[in-house]
Structure formats: structure tokens, C-alpha cells
Amino acid sequence: MTWRPPTVGIVGAGQLARMTIQAAIPLDVRIVLLAADVDDSAAQIAPRVIVGSPDDRETLKDLAQRSDVITFDHELVNPASLAWLEAAGHQVWPSPSTMALAQDKRRQRRELGDAGFPMPSYANIDCLDALLAFGEGYDWRVVVKASSGGYDGRGVWMVDSPAEAEAVWRGAKSSGTVLLAEERLPLDLEFAILLARTPGGEIAVYPPVETVQRDGICHELRVPARIDADLGMEATRIARKIAEQIGMVGILGIEFFVSRGELYLNELAPRPHNSGHWTIDGAVTSQFEQHLRAVLDLPLGSPEQTGQAIVTLNLLGRGTADDPRFRLAEGLAAGDAHVHFYGKKARAGRKIGHVTAIDNSIEAASVRVWAVRNALFDVSGL
Amino acid sequence: MTWRPPTVGIVGAGQLARMTIQAAIPLDVRIVLLAADVDDSAAQIAPRVIVGSPDDRETLKDLAQRSDVITFDHELVNPASLAWLEAAGHQVWPSPSTMALAQDKRRQRRELGDAGFPMPSYANIDCLDALLAFGEGYDWRVVVKASSGGYDGRGVWMVDSPAEAEAVWRGAKSSGTVLLAEERLPLDLEFAILLARTPGGEIAVYPPVETVQRDGICHELRVPARIDADLGMEATRIARKIAEQIGMVGILGIEFFVSRGELYLNELAPRPHNSGHWTIDGAVTSQFEQHLRAVLDLPLGSPEQTGQAIVTLNLLGRGTADDPRFRLAEGLAAGDAHVHFYGKKARAGRKIGHVTAIDNSIEAASVRVWAVRNALFDVSGL
Description:
alpha+beta, Dna Ligase, domain 1, about 30% helix
């Protein structure tokens, strides 16, 4: 019997796919990408690329026929098309129904709320009056979200007044965006639980990671998270239950708030997650290898951290004229840290890479990643 | 100014090139391979491959024109061709003269011996009588080597009698192989020093790694090596001096013997080295990233080990019918270890992958890698 490497088809070719390709090499797993453009982050380094759109069923079918299992770099895929692929006998992980739930924040809130998980108060917003009433009820400390399609701060609006509410409502109405509103909680901190689950139900949970947000974009990751052990255990318990409830297969990232010492569920992402980038250099098994193992129904690896304190800093673009790749030598000279570039142009605010350092304390690791990041951009401070 | 990723051309497309490609991804460094075959280990996962032979100068020139610097997966390249490339203005690291030295064991012994480094006794063998006299002089405890072209036990003969000497001599004569003979020392153990050196002379030295050989093939790596600290420091000092003497740029692996408590220089390899595979999972900076940094004249990373004890076991083929890739699930279930497959058919005795485990002791890590390896091959013991 001749060996044929298992092939994983990935819808999307961003940095998550790029880092998955890296993890696939030692396992002798092949990756086929469905990229929007030959120059996409992952497509630059991949020998097997289909250029096209997942909106086109023939393109999806082409990907499926070249793959043993299909998985995702992003959530922007029509669940009906995925169900159609599954019905044609192709393996799709996470399942089309899990993907559908992930794309629909209203349904997420309803189903997870019904199951009794702790969440901020929320309301579906189908008319301006509903939004005005919700805002009034929460003293205009509310956040309005697009029910689908948002990421990295897009599709999220902090709304502090009736005037702002009206502006958001009109914008959403003109673009056909479906909204929900949530109570904006006073935050002690935010953290995430990342886990992997196999088709057979094996689960491996990574230690909680503190996520420092800025302008709606995750900016810095810290392991260990500065939360009570009890709270971490409770979040882990909730994450496991959600993974089972939604039939997750692959990496699931679940974001939590801590507000006045209490735990609240924020959002979930059924794929390798920005909050897991620390695992590449700081855990026994990286989230990307773990995702491949899960979707290929292989035993999971240890999710343990390998160092005492791990800090990952996202590199956010400051404009294409200020591309940190020109300053790699300066960055590497500034301290020992793992620099990861995504092969993306340095447009302002765009995630173009990350830097991870491991040390004896969060403070020491943080000093190191900031030194490297500042050298990469030739700036000091933030 | 638009970013253009630096491109490294690699002559050869074996597992060293494959693992270098993996290390190149986060640095946004492009790799172009010169492969003998599209199905070579590294070519399977590379988007940029030239298929051809480095014996053909036009092919080498093609590689050079697509690369900012040329480096190597193996030593089987004509140094004159490399000098020709260099004269045409192409950057070649290690330099053609370093590559020439690495290919000529006679010259290595002479130049390093002249420099006063401790070595086993040796003699160039240009006639059968010279070999018989050498064998007599060392009580027929001798090893005969091809001066160039040998690797993984090929081109090395243990010679215990005049009859064996004559057989080796006749075989070498008929194939035109140039020989040298060395005293076969009683070995306490073998270890290697791996270092990286940049064009500007920055050097980073990895901790000594114990190399357990079997049938002339490196079988198991152990860090820390069980050698006296003094001996390790002396070997490190020697390794640094050699790197400077030969003008090394890139990773240099230097093998040492310990015989009756004394240190002896064995061989050197001017490239990422089997004895450095533990660094992928067990050092702050892997030898492959370090090699890229060196040949691109970037600052080097820390060579420190990240765990207390690290053991790497080479996976040696047991016949193509017994391909461990079929048993990946069993291997991963057998214990937490990093499995690395090279995408190679499992021919008997061939290096087809390696497994690394990190633990609190060499014993614990060793138990783990052997458990995984035995599960991958469905055997017990050796």
C-alpha cells in the first residue's frame, strides 16, 4: 500500500491558513487552499492553491474533491453551500451547522443564553425604537453589533447617546445589516479559553489567556491570565459544555469578560483564533497543529504551556510606508522573541504579524515583546 | 518602497531544506529549491522549485538569479561551480572555499590538525601497502573513509584485518574513491557542537548534544550531553575557533569523540545538521531559523534549550511496507512528543523522520520518544 498524505482543504488563505500550513509540514499533511487572490497571506507560501470564491459552488466542489476534509480560515462561507458539500459526501469540519451558528450572533446569544450560560443582557434590534429603548434601559452604556460578518472591530459600535444610536441604525438599515445590542459591562479584564475537540469527543483545553483589546482589536495576549483559579475553572467548564453543545470539531476560541468579579460569555470563533497565537512558541502543541489533528480525527496533543510566562503582541500596521519587514534585523537585535510575519502589506490598523516572548514573569516577557515591536516600527512606547 | 521578501536559494531538497522552509514562513523569507526530483522531501511542500542538477551551471545560474543568497541542503556540489557563481556576483553561504573544505576529509584533517586541534591519528591512503602499514600500526583497530561523498555510514568502513583492508582498497580503487584511514578510538561517547556564525562574525553556540550512533547513523540525540562541563567548554572553544578559521557562515555542526576522558575532533558539516534537530522543539531558536538568519546577515537568536532534558530519536525506515505515516494516530496516542515526518518512503535504514520529547530527565524523555516510535512502527524495544 502506497502512502498518500491526508489532504486538508482550507477555505480562505489568510494568516490562519498560513500558520496551519507551517504546522502541517512535520505531520506530512497536505494543504489545498481556496484563496481569493494568489497573493493572499497563505497562498504566497503554498504549492497547492485554487483561486476563486467560496460563493461559487463549483469552486467549493473542486476544493472538496482535492481534499479529505474541508476546514476554514474565516467564517464568511454560506452554510447552505457547506451543507450541500456535506450531502455530497464530503467531510466538513467544523460542521455546517456549527459554522452557521458562528455566523449568527443573534442565534448564538439565544441558544447559549437558553442553555444558561452567563451573558451580558442583550436584545435583537429590528427597529430604531427598540434600540432607543435598550439604550435608555442601560443608561447609554451599550454596544451594537452586526449579527454577522463583523471581525476585528468591524461591525461593532460603541453607542453612548440617542443620536449615535440613530446614526448606527440608519447606516445598518442602508446596508441591510441585522443588529443586536448588548449591555456594555464595566470590564475588569477580558480573557479567552481555547480548546480543541475531535469528532469522537476528545477535548484538550489550553490555559486561559488574557486578551488585552484596543479599538476592538486584540492587541496583547498574556499567559497566565490574571484571573482567579476558580473563574478559570468555571470558564473552562463552560467552554467544554459549549463545545459539546455545538458539536465542535477543531479549535474553538471562546471570549469571556470579567466584570465586577463575575464571568460573562462574549463571543466564540470555531477556528484557530488570534488569542491562540501564543501556543506556537509557548505550548507543547500549537493551536494550528491541534486543529489539524482534530479535523483529521487524530489524538490531540498536550495544550500545556512550556514556559512560566508568555506574552504575544499583535503587530498592527501603521501604514504601508512603515513596513516592519524592512526592519527585521533591528527587531531581532532588540531582544529574544519569536517574530511572525503574515506576508501582508502594513496598512494602518491591520494585523500583519505577531511577536511572542517567554520569560519568568509577564512583566519581563512584556518588556521584551514591546522592545522588539518598537524596534520593528522604529518607535518608542505605544 | 514596496516590500520584496528576501529569497534564499537552496541547492538540494531533502529534509533539511524541508525544515528550513518551515522556519522561513514566519520570517517572510522566500525559499527557491534546486531539487533533483519534484517529489523530493522539500519539493513536495514548496511553491518555488527548479528541477535539475547542480552539476549543470545554467541550472545553478537560474537558481542564483532567483535568489538573494544561495545555501545548501547537502555538500555534493562542485566548489568550482560555486566559485564561478560567486565571481558572477552571487552571494553563496557557506562560501565556496568552506564548502570545498567540507567535501575533502583529507584536507580537513590536515588543516585542522595543523591548527593543533585534537584528532585521532590518521593517514592518507594512496596504496594498499600504506593501508596495511597503518592497520598494523594500530592493531587493526582502524576506520577507512572515503575522502569525499560519504554520509550516513556510506563511505565508511570498519577494517579489522589485512584481508578486509585489501577488499576495501580494491573496491575504492575500482570506483576511483580517494581514501584516508583513522585510528579507531575506544569511545566513551560521541557528541556534537552546533553553532551559527554570521558574515560579520557573530557566533551563537548551542549546548553540547550527545549523539548516539548505530551502524554509522546518528540515532538518538540527548541534551544535556553526559559530559564534564570542562570538556563541553573546551569543545565549544574549539568549535568557535574552527568556525572562524574556515570563515563559516550559517550553521556548522562539529562532531567530537570522547575517548578515555579525552576530547577528539571527528568531522564537520557546514549546514543544518542531524544533531541539531532537537532545536526545533527544544531551543529558543531552531537551527533552521538560525541558519536563515546567518546567511541573510540577520542577528542570531538565543541557542538556549527551553526544557530541562530533550531527547530526539531518528525514525529509520524498516521497509516501505512498514510506513509509520499510516500509524500516526497510534504514535500520537502513545505519548506527548513532536513527530516530524520528512515525506520520504520508508526504505530500510533511511532517515524518514524524527521524534522529540522534552521532560524533566533524559530518562523520562527517552521513554516517551521510544514509546511514540514503537507505536509508529508497531514494534516494541529496538
